[in-house]
Amino acid sequence: MALTADPRQTSGPTRAGRREWTALGVLMLPLLLVSMDVSVLYFAIPSIAADLRPGAVQQLWILDMYGFVLAGLLVTMGALGDRVGRRRLLLSGAALFGAASVAAAYAHSPGALIGARALLGVAGACLMPSTLALIRTLFQDPAQRARAVTLWTTVMAAGISLGPVVSGALLEHFWWGSVFLINLPAMVLLLVLAPPLLAESKGAGGPGRFDLVSAGLSLGALLPVVYGIKELAKDGWDPLPGLGIAVGLLLGLVFVRRQARLDHPMVDLRLVRSPAYGGSLVVNLLAMTATVGFAVFLTQYLQSVLGQSPLEAALWSLVPAGGVMVAAPVAAALAQRVDRAHVMAGGFLLAAAGFGWLAAVDRATPFWAVLVAGAVYASGLVSAMTLANELALGAAPPERAGAAAAVLESGSELGGALGMALLGAVGAAVYTSAMPAAAPAAARETLGGALGSAPDVVEAARSAFVEAMSGAALGAASLMVVAAVVSLTVVRRSGPAGR
Question: Per-residue pLDDT averaged across 358-365, rounded?
Answer without folding.
Answer: 90
